[in-house]
Fold:
Amino acid sequence: MSDQICVGAIAGAFGVQGEVRLKSFTADPEAIADYAPLSTEDGSASFEVQITRAIPQGFAARLTGIRSKEQADALRGTRLFAPRDRLPSLQTDEYYHADLIGVAVFDTGGVELGRVKAVLNHGASDLLEILVPGQSATILLPFTLAAVPTVDLGAGRIVADPPEGLFD
Structure:
């Protein structure tokens, strides 16, 4: 498990005064500012965050040191990270997406189905994108208690009971 958790991403400039479009990946989207300073993945830059207003698909925000549209645009696509110890404790059966990536997925009979490539959410619920060995296409597994009864991060395994025909 990584000490750094991705809590947001910069989607580009908002206006001409150096504000950025900020996407929040936190359970309470506005709480992203509470975890600042946020750093880039490589740790080369760190920013305090001030949310200025809500906008479609995120927030307009000011980041320390960013004063122009050009500086804000240069950060487009930058993911922002916070130290794990600055984030709230998780409840039982809650997981940081970053902790699920790369975990092996087994069926209830112990046969490995693949590894988690990504955790997606298109509005209804989370989906585990499973990379199946020997296949170029991935499979989307609903991340529900019925389809994924066991997640054991300590052992590095997920037990899935996928809908019939999903992995055929």
In short: The first strand starts at residue 4 and ends at 14. The CA atoms of residues 112 and 156 lie 12 Å apart. The chain has two domains: 4-86, 97-160. The chain has a mean pLDDT of 91.
